[in-house]
């Protein structure tokens, strides 16, 4: 089983969008039983809150189910539980490393790294209001990540 944890600042916009987009891609590929996908925040600001209405709206618009995930903060002890720990931007990576302390197995990366866009971040729609652009980047990143994961199965 491949275990993926998507991370953003509050766990209500980008990381939950990535969680549900990736789950949808995995389900369409008939690989549901081969993956465990979750998301979390680096901050405590939104703990317990549901996905942002913009994330819910965008996922509904493109026909991707949005579950009842509630924002939570990632924990240091989760490092061994996941194969991939994926931040949405450079700031997320800094905060992920602050929480984890180290990444001895090289599990931590940005989502767009899988697309070859190593220096790019997924813009935070909390600030931009542009859930369409966020979705396009998240979808591209998740498709590329799934292709990498298929090499491991």
Give an account of the 3D structure.
- There is one protein chain.
- With 153 residues, the chain is an alpha/beta fold.
- The protein has a single domain, classed as Rossmann fold (3-Layer(aba) Sandwich).
- Helices cover 39% and strands 14% of the residues.
- It has five helices and four strands; from the N terminus they run βαβαβαβαα.
- The chain has helices at residues 14-28, 53-61, 90-100, 125-128, 131-150; strands spanning 2-8, 35-41, 84-87, 108-110.
- It has a four-stranded parallel beta sheet with strand order 2-1-3-4, with helices on both faces.
- Helix 1 links the parallel strand 1 and strand 2.
- Helix 1 crosses helix 5 (131-150).
- It is globular, with a radius of gyration of 14 Å.
- The termini are close together.
- The model has no long low-confidence stretch (mean pLDDT 97).
Shape: globular
Computed CA radius of gyration, to the nearest angstrom: 14 Å
What number of structural domains do the residues give? Answer: 1
CATH superfamily: Response regulator
Q: What is the percent of helical residues? A: 25-40%
Count of strand segments: 4
Q: Order of strands in the sheet with the most strands?
A: 2-1-3-4
- Main beta sheet: 4 strands, parallel
Strand-and-helix sequence, N→C?
A: EHEHEHEHH
Helices, by number, come to 5
Helix/strand/pairing category = alpha/beta
CATH architecture: 3-Layer(aba) Sandwich
- The residue-averaged pLDDT reads 97
């Amino acid at each position: 089983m491949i275990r993926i944890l998507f991370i953003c600042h509050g766990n209500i916009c980008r990381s939950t969008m990535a969680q549900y987009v990736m789950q949808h891609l995995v389900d369409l590929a008939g690989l549901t039983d081969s993956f465990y996908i979750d998301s979390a925040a680096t901050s405590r600001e939104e703990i317990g809150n549901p996905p942002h209405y913009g994330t819910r709206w965008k996922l509904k618009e493109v026909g991707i189910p949005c579950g009842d995930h509630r924002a939570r903060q990632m924990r240091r002890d989760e490092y061994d539980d996941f194969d991939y720990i994926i931040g949405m931007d450079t700031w997320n990576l800094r905060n992920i490393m602050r929480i984890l302390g180290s990444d001895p197995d090289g599990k931590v990366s940005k989502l767009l790294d899988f697309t070859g866009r190593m220096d790019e971040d997924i813009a935070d729609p909390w600030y931009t209001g542009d859930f369409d652009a966020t979705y396009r980047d998240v979808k591209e990143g998740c498709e590329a990540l799934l292709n990498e994961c298929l090499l491991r199965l």
